[in-house]
Amino acid sequence: MARSGARSIPARRALGSLERLAQELHGLRERGGAADAIERLRERGLEAIREDLRSDTAAETARIQTRFGELEHGYRKESRERSAELRDARDRASLRLAALSDNALEARLSSLAERGGADPAQADEALVGLAELRRRGDPAFDVFAKRVAPLIDRPWATSEEGRALEREADMIARTRGQDSILVEAPTANGTVALTPLGLDSLFEQVEAEAARAPEANHATV
Amino acid sequence: MRRFDNFLKLAFGAEPVPEPEALADSTTIRLERLEHSLGIAPADALAAQGDPLEAKNDG
Lengths: 221, 59
Description:
Chain A is mainly α. In chain A, 72% of the residues lie in helices and 6% in strands. Chain A has helices at residues 9-30, 35-81, 83-98, 102-115, 120-136, 141-153, 160-175, 199-212, and strands spanning 180-186, 192-198. Chain A has a two-stranded antiparallel ribbon with strand order 1-2. In chain A, a hairpin with a 5-residue loop joins strand 1 (180-186) and strand 2 (192-198). In chain A, helix 2 runs antiparallel to helix 7 (160-175) and helix 4 (102-115) runs parallel beside helix 6. Chain B is elongated and about 30 Å long. Chain B starts with a helix and ends with a helix. Chain B contains four helices and no strands. The A-B interface holds A 2, 4-9, 11-13, 15-17, 19-21, 24, 28, 41, 44-45, 48-49, 51-52, 55, 150, 164, 166-171, 173, 181-185, 192, 194, 202, 205-206, 209, 216, 219-221 and B 2-4, 6-8, 11-12, 14-15, 17-20, 23-24, 26-27, 30-31, 34-35, 37-47, 49, 51-53, 55-56.
């Protein structure tokens, strides 16, 4: 599974391949290889990496969908198996939340939305809390309805694993069909925006990095 | 066999690129340095830009 904080798996694989291609071409140049032969190898290598990125992306997308299906199935199964216990917990939550002040109720909903999680009792509590907000005519109802919607609609996607899968899927979606990797690029107003960068451009930079740090070409892989 | 690994073998007689999770520590560190210098976005950068579901709905 993708670790939180890691680049997408297809992107990481492509980068490893780009770096290796840069190393091999650098070695060939040092051994006096012909420039036109090196250029042909460069193009063939990049084409192979592009094709691997496409197939890795398709495989990773399928893996994410399958895993989401498993998480949803597990969640629904647990909900069925614990139905009596969950009904009692809902009743208790309803009484407990009805006794809270408006501020305390909003704080509890914030906490549930932020924490997320795949425990059906948490989604139930969020739903009960939201109903209580509406009953009171709280003006913040719409804001909280939006914040807890993921926990109510797709609770399995709000667990730690579900969120990591969402991030991975989002990174893939932003580069789909572009033979590119997502990079952080500075914008004119000084902020950083996520932008897809094509493999050809990326490889030019990888080669430049390899030329700046030639010792990396001899590192152990 | 992946296309690039096949290419490496045929063109250079080289070994395949290891899977990311099987990389030696030294290679992982080198690739992370490279990612940093190229500005390749970590997944956390998406979280910093907001909820992925909202981003999808907006886009």
